[in-house]
Write the structure tokens for this entry.
Amino acid sequence: MASTSDIRNGLCINYNNDTFKIVEFQHVKPGKGPAFVRTKLKSLTSGKVIDNTFSAGHKIDEVRVETRKYQFLYAEGNMFNFMNTTDYNQIMLEKAILDAPELMKEGEVVTVIVRTEDELPLAVDLPASVVLEVTYTEPGVKGNTATNATKPATLETGAIVNVPLFINEGDKVKIETAKGSYQERIKE
């Protein structure tokens, strides 16, 4: 049993007869009243995100997990196929447990969180950022902006991300996977 002082991003817990991963948390110590922890929990079975508040010192049921490296092979409908990079075993996972499936390209190495007691894959963590090629975007017109203007761009995986006007088709861009937002253009 852990307590609220052990809460951290990525921690997996049992709560309300479901397994959740802590996405965000904030310790709050108001001037009046007891301290508490405000959390954002993502269900690892349904993918639903809920907000929850734990009082300070509340006992939480931590789930023992391992992380393993898997390579994304291909998608087949709502199922995604991955291969373990050490023993080459393949697994199929549902789209619901993936955080940003539209940002994964074939061959990408991801971290799969596996519950140790029954070897059940719980979640897939993508790298902090991915580099993808722009396959379609409208040409930017020079001088039509006074501030940071953006335009939609379709990436090689089919994802649509807002990028600055100077990005053209064929450019490689770095995308932050947590927010699905543009970070920078990659020069070759």
About this structure: The chain has a mean pLDDT of 86. The chain is about 0% helix and 55% strand. The CA atoms of residues 173 and 181 lie 10 Å apart. The domain at 129-186 is CATH 2.40.50.140 (OB fold (Dihydrolipoamide Acetyltransferase, E2P)).
